[in-house]
Amino acid sequence: MPELPEVETVRQTLKNFIIGKKITGVMFFYDQIVKNETSDEFRNKIIGQAFRDIRRKGKYLMFDVDDYTLVSHLRMEGK
Prior knowledge:
By secondary structure, the chain is α+β, with helices and mostly antiparallel strands. It has one domain: Alpha-Beta Barrel (N-terminal domain of MutM-like DNA repair proteins), CATH 3.20.190.10. It has helices at about 5-20, 40-45, and strands at about 50-55, 60-65, 70-75. A three-stranded antiparallel beta sheet has the order 1-2-3, with helices on one face. The chain is globular.
């Protein structure tokens, strides 16, 4: 499991690359990751949203886009 300093390094690095960029596509490797709607509904809502900030709460990364916040955990691999 990634350590907290590694998660912070990933956050800062990603921030330099994606802030202000728009989401142009979404791929799912596991459709059940999306709760309360279908993967197509989620895809339609999120495409076109721009990244505004990346925050961290513990080992979770929170990607703020125009209308939503996406939450991610680096899992065991650190990816």
